[in-house]
Amino acid sequence: MKRLSCLVVAVASLATSAVFAQAPAVAMSTPWAQSMCSAWNADATLTDKLVESGWIKNDAGRGFKAMQVYRADCPKSARIEMQIALKEGKAQCTYGGGARTAQLDGHADYLMWAQSPHWREMGAGQYGPMRAMMFGALQFEGPKMEAMGNMGPFANFLLLVGKVPGDWSSCP
Questions:
Q1: Does the 26-163 domain belong in CATH 3.10.310.10?
Q2: What is the pTM assigned to this prediction?
Q3: Antiparallel, parallel or unpaired: β 65-71 and 80-87
Q4: Distance CA 154, CA 80 (A)
Q5: pLDDT tens-digit series, residues 20-33
């Protein structure tokens, strides 16, 4: 009986571990940003079109563009950052994690924030970046004309927010 009891506890422990191991990362946390980076690199529109348009070349001479994002309803949470660089002829995400670019360059880099429900709506494709910015669902700082010229890829970036699994029930 004691062996059976130990076996039941062991199986329950393994099942609980498996559930927690598969739980998605908190949306806009460092692990989530790493997943976003991988998803970026798997999206041909982002990796190819941002080279074709010349977007990737505007990197403030650093060799990468920084994109920082956060959830406006999580004011105590740190920003996350994706760094995008020209690598093997593609606009590749070379870093995804906690913000590490201390001073964003307003002529090359991007800062975006929205309330969690708006991030989720944009990620679900309910509306694109143009509508989101026009109606204030998405706040944005950075090179506006450059962004306007890249609305297609920018829409794909917003859709990644919905494709990358994330727990939106708590702040990072």
A1: no
A2: 0.85
A3: antiparallel
A4: 17
A5: 557 899 999 999 99
